[in-house]
Amino acid sequence: MTDSAAMTRLYRDAVLAHSQAPHNFGAMASADCQASATNALCGDHFTVYLRLSRDPRRIVGTSFDGHGCAISMASASLLTDLVHGMSEGEALDTGRRFAAAMSGPGDSEVPEPLRPLTGVRDYPARIRCALLPWAALERALRPADESN
Amino acid sequence: MSEPAVTSSGPALDVAAIRQDFPILRQSMNGHRLAYLDNAASTQRPSVVIDAISTYYSRDHANVHRGVHTLSQRATDAQEAAREIVRQFIGAADRREIIFTRGTTDSVNLVAGTLGQSIGPGDEILITHMEHHSNIVPWQMLCERTGARLVVAPIDSRGELLMGDFLERLGPRTRLVSIVHVSNALGTVLPVEQLAAEAKRRGIPVLIDGAQAVAHTRIDVRALGCDFYAFSGHKMYGPTGIGVLYGRLDRLERLPPYQGGGEMILSVSFEKTEWNELPYKFEAGTPHIAGIVGLGAAITYLESLDMNAVASHESLVLDYGRRALEAIDGLTLVGTAKHKAGVLSFVVDGIHSHDLGTVLDHQGVAVRTGHHCAMPLMSFLGLSGTARASLAVYNDRDDIDQLVEAIRIAIKLLGR
Ligand SMILES: Cc1ncc(COP(=O)(O)O)c(C=O)c1O
Fold first, then answer.
1. Cα(B259)–Cα(B139) distance, rounded to whole angstroms?
2. Is the CB of residue B137 less than 8 Å away from at least one CB of chain A?
């Protein structure tokens, strides 16, 4: 693979498009839950905001704000599109599957809408960039006092 | 590009020959020549250092100061010979002033951990706004323990220390001034000699974090007038896990030991233990002997190049790099102090430093990206991070040209 091919596999057009014009960017005043995650290595920081319906309990509104690299921005943008309409369990499960596909051994599949981020797998130092907004999502849906 | 108008004082270095001394530089990286520009994080090692360590282990190793047998004597001699090399290198008066530590961080912690006994509530430790975390956190921990206060001298947006503000903060309660010699994030060279003189006039001891200075300019601790000087082997072509704390004899004598254990004692009974003499009082446990030997070899190597030649070579490359980077549209240099050493920190419009770092790596260019362990400095500058190219003796204009080309590729790929 030539350099530029590898680079464009990491920085696919879809990744660049999402990072440069992220979907659902901005704080949400009326969020039912929100949480933040910081990458201590670089100081990148995201907050994920969610609105939840009661019956059935589903995610009916998503947004995020914060700052980060192209990979984490694109991941956050994709996240807010993807989990919209999901139940909390589905959203958490998607995050888990994404994390497993990114950092786990073997070749578990990257969930379809997150495929543009597949190239990140080849850059171990950047995987945590892709996972950062998902850490915020997990925290929002499972505040620490309930998860342990 | 035209020759930078800098006059060099030392003899010119044969950089091509120097590059041959560093085996790691012979490899290609991601299909390109390796442009290693992350020397502020850690430099590479010349063969003479690698060989010295290998020879030590394959011929001379045993524990030091512990045995009467020949190998123990050889190991002890090797360690003490290195101590003498360090002493001469930094101009210390006495070999007992050279304490081997794990590195700069360990050296600062040694002082912070032992000074505490003479510090109480309301006392102050004065640092600057451009310190590495390792010259911030140990003092915060000390303050937590003792009720002392950490006082921070401000800088301006170019990365220059504000002298007046610094002097204002040198007060009657200041118990120690702890300042960086060369900022790892910006490259600013602080006027440490002048700052130390001001502190000395008020009877305040001074610690200098020399992590980014020792390999790049000649250090004379007595001329600097400092009480403590801390540095790391791995940032000066030596091994990791070894560093030095220089301390003036009278200061060291007044400090209690840092850690307890073997080597740092004269006699032990369960009732009373008598501390060993300097420097062993501060060297508990079996030291990193191979690291010490490697550090000695690294210094000998540096001396063979001539420190004045090293300094003027690096300043030529720095100047060339500054001009080359300034010419790139959308790139902003961070840290433009008048007196700078081998660091070019920069940001590029619309490109996060980590993305930049990844693309540069693909072009064989190794730079550091992020906050450089100086988060308070980054937040003062309003940045979450920068990309940083930092120089060593084996860098030349080719490295800079390769960096510039890689940045242009990154801008084409990622820029808006
Ligand atoms: C200015 C400065 N101080 C202290 C340190 C810490 O050095 P070490 O990690 O070797 O202890 C560094 C290393 O990054 C540095 O650049």
1. 18
2. no
Cα(A33)–Cα(A51) distance, rounded to whole angstroms?
Answer: 7
Residue B261 banded pLDDT, cuts 50, 70, 90: confident
Q: Is residue B3 part of a domain?
A: no
Q: For residue B173, give the CATH number of its domain.
A: 3.40.640.10
- The answer to the question of residue B382 being in a domain is yes
Specify the amino acid at residue B95.
R
Q: Which residue has the CA at smallest separation from atom 13 of ligand 1?
A: B41
Quote the pTM value. 0.91
Q: Tell me the shortest Cα–Cα distance from A138 to chain B, in angstroms.
A: 24
Q: Would you give the distance in Å from CA B399 to the centre of its chain?
A: 22
**Does ligand 1 have an atom closer than 6 angstroms to the CB of B390?**
no
Note the residue count of chain B: 416
- pLDDT band per the 50, 70, 90 thresholds, residue B6: very low
The whole-angstrom separation of Cα B150 and Cα B393 is: 36
Task: Decide if domain A3-143 falls under CATH 3.90.1010.10.
Answer: yes
What residue numbers bound the domain in which B204 lies?
A: 50-303
Taking 50 as the threshold, does the pLDDT of residue B301 lie above it? yes
The 3-state DSSP class for residue B350 equals coil
**End residue of a domain, out of B303, B321, B355:** B303
Which tokens in the block code for residue B212? 């980014």
Q: Give A63 or B260, the one with higher predicted confidence.
A: A63
